[in-house]
Amino acid sequence: GENVEQHPSTLSVQEGDSAVIKCTYSDSASNYFPWYKQELGKGPQLIIDIRSNVGEKKDQRIAVTLNKTAKHFSLHITETQPEDSAVYFCAAPGTGNQFYFGTGTSLTVIP
Amino acid sequence: DAEITQSPRHKITETGRQVTLACHQTWNHNNMFWYRQDLGHGLRLIHYSYGVQDTNKGEVSDGYSVSRSNTEDLPLTLESAASSQTSVYFCASKASENTGELFFGEGSRLTVL
Fold first, then answer.
1. Interface test with A, best of B5, B44, B66, B102 (most A CBs within 10 A)
2. How confident is the model at residue B2 (pLDDT cuts 50, 70, 90)?
């Protein structure tokens, strides 16, 4: 299956600063890369995704960039707020309809 | 509103017992998945199904089984629970291969003593 690596495992930022989380994947045929946010005690929820024919996608304060040559993609959160504190997961598709996830990044935004 | 529900939310069991975790979705999604979440490992795929009577093994399928007798349900069975299976289990469903959005349940925390 796909091998997804995610860094860092923990990240603390001051409120208002930016946060960046990076992932790499192994299967060059992968063409869709979602990011999920998991709040305490809940299941993960999709926050943004990017397809392989796009290099960058933005949605308000969050953006995702994709470098297919290097096989890595990143999540950028600008002007962080306390409610951004959560665990974030990147994912990449397998050969079928399933997804493989990174190990997660615990983001803490310090007020 | 359509939803995906898991039960029980919390369970404590003993080594060697059989345990079944239920997952029910009302979206009529063909694709359903089971993941386990452990610190340092993220979400790991256990089993998945693309439709009724279809089941497939994921990354960490040993000691687990699933069955898909209808579209709405994908129960996960631990045949003989082991302490290494203490974890939080998440069920998820997805509409089609053209969209990647997985809809997750709230999770089932299983403790094997």
1. B102
2. low
